[in-house]
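ugh ok fine here u go
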Amino acid sequence: MIVVAIATAALIIVLSVFNGFEELLHSIHTSFDPELKIEAVKGKSFEVDSLFLQKINAIKGVETVTEVIEDYALVRYHGADVIVTIKGVSNNFINQHRLDDHIVEGKLRLHENGINYAIVGRGVRHALNIAVENNIFPLQVYYIKNAKASTLDVSKLYARRDIEPGSVFSIEKNYDDNYIFIPLEFAQDLLDYGNKRTSLEVKTTGATAKVQQELQKLLGDTYSVLNNDQQHKDLYKLLKMEKLFMFLALTLLTLVASISIFFSLMMLVIDKKKDIAILSAIGASPRLVRSIFLSEGALIAFLGAGSGLFLGGSICWLQDHFGIVGMGMENSLVANYPVELNPVDFLYIFVMMTAITLLISFYPASVASKSFSTQDL
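structure:
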């Protein structure tokens, strides 16, 4: 029972940690990425006009449609420079409130008093040593043009625009080190995109799946409408595969550990040789003898699995509320390993553990019912 309980608890703890990491990734991505994202199936950008936007806004459930121009650029500030991803967004991006809880310095804004402002990732802010509150230097943004390399005028090879740093956001290191949000008009002018957009970001009123279907139906096969999971499908697929392989690995270890249960029951059959013979002498049938040993296996299975589920669940609850095990990194997103208990995991593990134990118990029970008789007295 102890073997079964420990194996069950280990499975619950490991799967709960994977669930915790998956939920953590969801929370990170929903903070930075939109509920729905419209992209061109072919090509980097697509034309957007007022009629196109009206059709999208007319779909029931669409609350906000943000126009986006996204590309790489070089940003220089007071002698330091870094390559970043600039993300030009229309004014209604602020109304999506995705960055409200992640501003660590400055004021969340794209325009104010006729001045354009950039929302800078914390990693970019540290790399360039940007002073947001007492700023006297602008951010110089350079974009390489698709000009002929043979041109003698170097200024025609790139475009440059200046913008004021307005605030600093912090979500996750990958985003903080690489992204700067800028007004759409600023990106439009810098990149010379005109009416082209790299994507449209849609905020819904709640029925996201239904809105996604309606948008895909409206836009056709030339556009893809992606929900948050689909925007990171490779990452989530990898995480689920890791969870599956970990489950299979621990199940294999459980099968190996269950050999001890098999030999324990076989030793019990040998030890109870005379008792079995007495039962046979007083009229016990082989079926009764078999059921006694199967009951022994069932007792090990149900009590062991039940105790393991309780133990694993208790450890995960303590980790979630008190943080028993820390991440061990100063710059980690969370101080402690994230865990999330999933009732489906409990069901799968309980069924799997009891099935393994009962199957292992079947052979010793059969041996006990067939190998001994009243002649053994």
